Amino acid sequence: MTAFAAMASPTGDGTVTVTATGELDMTSAPTLIEALRDAIHAYAPSRVDLDLSGVPFMDSTGIQVLVAAQADVGGDLRITGTSPAVHRLLQLTGLLETFGLTV
Amino acid sequence: MHERDLDGILDEALLLVTELTTNSVVHARTEVDVEITAADGSLTVTVLDFLPGTVVPNIPVPGATTADLDERGRGLLLVDQLASSWGTLHFSGGKGVWFRLDKAGTASIAAPPSFEIPVAPAPEALSALGWSGTGTSLTEVAEELLHRLVGVIGAAGAALTLDEGDGPHTIAAVGRLTGSVDSGRRVPLRITKPWRGELLIAGGGGNPYARPLTSLAADRLMLLVENHRLRRADSERRTWLTFLADASELLAQSLDVELTLALIPRLVVPRLGTWCAIHAADAGGELRLAAAAHADEAMLTELLDALGQAAPQLKEAMSTDAVVPLGPPLEGYVVALIARGQHLGTLTVGGGRDTWQRSEEVAVVEDVARRAALAIDNANIHAERRSIAHALQRSLLPPQLPKADGVEFGAEYVPTGEGVDVGGDFYDVVPLSGRRWLVVVGDVSGKGVQAATVTGLVRDVTRVLVRDGRPLPETLKRINETLLERGAGRFCTLCLAEVMRRPDGTLDVALHLAGHDQPVLLRADGRTELAGQCGTALGLLDTINTPRTQITLHPGDTLIFYTDGVTERRRGPELFGVDRLREEASLLAGFPADVVVARLRATTLNFSPESPRDDIAIFAVRNDA
């Protein structure tokens, strides 16, 4: 199991990129929540890009975090990268379009 | 920095590092890691602490002055003002802030620093605290002192005797004592009862300093004996504390009532007595023998007979909360087992009189009784919780599946862990008019009573709406609205399948998936495929899309529904997965529905030695025509 970490950095156009690595489940979800909250508070971005390509596994807790974070950002949370497992879960739950992804 | 020609930004770097490390020390109160990377034209610094949480407690709103912010906010405002770029960093063990300073004229788009997840430094091991003596025995020191005393006062001999409650013993002796003690002196030592000690001097009465020197020697010996007594008491106390700690750990590990009761006598014998018995009180306060142990197994029957005669003393201990002694033939005592104000039973210990009459050992037994009572009470609470969880879980699942000609239903459910929490997985079969049934399989996020409440809500709303004749898309839309209003932030994946038996012997299935895993369609010849189109999970978004898929089950075909507890079952980093599920299902073509689900349950559980992290539900519909 990969230890979870999340890093936030601004990209200069009012967007903040949050890059997550490791397994996103009940135990690691608080770390992502804190990273997203910090990104929103520190930069007041117009959009948050979330890169989950380094997340090999995500469960239903991750879904709740993503939907809640999107509400916090005011609807503009975009997932810019996914692993196959994360992509499959977002597809199963019908949330690909919600986060700007395609089948 | 000098080598990289970064002297020009040294002051800013020092200021920002100071600000950030101060923040970490003041707010996180943990160790701090500072990572510095110097490149040509820029410097990147990452300051990490080991307290998970947010870095920014307040928002530096536009136009805010430093007076509006607390110290931590001011630190980050400085970083924001001075750094070319900066950002935050989170990992499972803590968080941090990174910043980059560019040399004048070399500004570039900053990439965040690469980092390795740090490991919090282990705290220094605490040095053991304890009495540190010279290592010389009481006898050796006493003999040396007596030897000097005899030499100085010209006595024929001297001795130190000590009675620890089991009769006087000579600890040290020098010179000749026989027949001349009476003409000498006996000086009692002022030591803590029940210990008693005496300094015996034979002869030496002619020396004018004999009396004060003997008195001085007696005081020195008294200190030596007290020191010896305290060291022994400390050693015994440490032994008892170790014993109690070990006993507590063993008792805490068991959450099974009968196992806990059986364990207690095994802890007590032979450490605190030759035998031990536990009597448990029932709801009416009546005592029954729950467990007993004897150091000599052959004596156990005799012990049980004798305990049968001790009922009055056991009842007395229960009513008075005091230590009640037991006379012959038992030679022991009874202590009540009390936890959280409830009398749970009695602990009876016995052995030789010399053992059980020592007050410190009685105190240890009382301590064991307190810990044992808590362990029993915890086990009782755990059993009650498990019973409630099972009852609640049963109420959320159908008591039995319908039986009909040509259609077979099979279901398996495995709760997670110890079975003290109600899972979020559920299934149901709702009989409809005209040889139709609605199969419902769902998974509410989370566990426990709150999840169970939402599960019950989803199940009941589904039943009411479909029996009212509402189409499945409308039913799902209503459930989504209900969850958004009353779901307490929980969402649900749901699968609705309307099964209808046709006159030609086929089964028509209208399938709607709302965020749920696609069921496995197992054909009679062993071929498998995933059925249905993915739809939106319920309770997350205002608008949902749950497309309908039409499936025909020919005789011998089976449609297998499951929850993510199956596909996400782990063996190390490996998941059970959908592909493995399909492979295993393909081996079960031709088997009845209840056999299919039972085999898949066994295969899923056997995939890993660990107990399931998530509950598992498997449901099958088979055309049995």
- The CATH class name of the largest domain in chain B reads Alpha Beta
Structural class of chain A: alpha/beta
How many strand elements of chain B? 25
- Largest interface (CB < 8 Å): A-B, 40 and 48 residues
Largest sheet report of chain A: 4 strands, mixed
Please describe the biggest sheet of chain B, giving its number of strands, its sense, and whether it closes into a barrel: 5 strands, antiparallel
Total helical segments of chain B: 14
Stated plainly, the CATH topology of the largest domain in chain B is called Phosphatase 2c, domain 1
Which topology of chain A does CATH recognise?
Answer: Transcription Regulator spoIIAA
The backbone outline of chain A, from C-alpha atoms, is globular
How many structural domains of chain B? 4
Low-confidence stretches of chain B: 57-62, 64-72, 119-135, 353-357
Q: What is the spatial order of strands in the main beta sheet of chain A? A: 1-2-3-4
Placed side by side, the strands forming the largest sheet of chain B appear as 10-9-13-12-11
Distance separating the two termini of chain A? 27 Å
Number of strands of chain A: 4
Mean pLDDT of chain B: 79
Task: Tell me the overall shape of chain B.
Answer: flat
The helical percent of chain A reads 25-40%
Count of spatially separate domains of chain A: 1
Count helical runs of chain A.
Answer: 3
